[in-house]
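Marked as duplicate of an earlier ticket. Keeping the data here for the record.
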Amino acid sequence: MKLFFRKYGSGPPLIILHGLYGCSDNWISIARMISDSFTVYLPDLRNHGQSPHSGEMNYRVMSQDILEFSEDLELGRFFLAGHSMGGKAAMTFALRYPEKLNGLLVADISPFTTKTTEKEAFKQHKAILDAIISLDLSKIKTRAEAEAEIGKRIESEKTAGFILKNLQRTHENMFTWRLNASVLSDNLKYITEGFNRDNISEMQTSGFPVTFLKASDSDYIRYEDYDDIIRLFPSAEIKEIAGAGHWLHADQPEPVAGYLKELLWQ
């Protein structure tokens, strides 16, 4: 799949993958902050942003998309970072194609889930996707109307605002969603699932620096996962970003940019 992307800066190549409901726009500020250190590539993942839609949505096909992307651009070895869903895609890529990487940064997502956390994540995201799918855009005439209707369906004002960034007008002056909500909903089980802890010894990967960023005000990386994270990526360092929620690159962009630059020095 040919992914839409944005490009900033000069230097060693770095690909940054956005999270669920996001797009390349989410990381522009960070890309500009580190453009003196890297050539930063910001792709829209499949079924998001301006990239193609597909009925398949899992980490295996997303990692294949990144491989194709890097080969089309002839990047050779590169640095890779990802947030949330993009972090799982980045980890999957690292485990499948470790020889391609110079370094890996994973932003506020653990490789692992429990039955409880996986069920909670599924329920939370299913409610969001149902809210998107249930909105009849043919009856929406203004963005304010869309904001009001989404606000009725999604309790968190911050989440609703993030979702509404995906709303765009067509040439016919109608509204449409950039993300493919129906496919995301159909494949939500694969998006919210974690890696198999029983296979850590077979999956263990090393040979490049790895940084995990835990947002202090988020539980997407749990302290009880630390030992298994180190078992999976023996070179991993886990850093906590103070004063940040799950969207840590928006809440605390300076330390996130700093840790990306540190990949060059390890």
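See parent ticket for discussion. The beta strands are 5-9, 13-17, 39-43, 78-83, 101-107, 167-169, 175-177, 210-215, 236-241.
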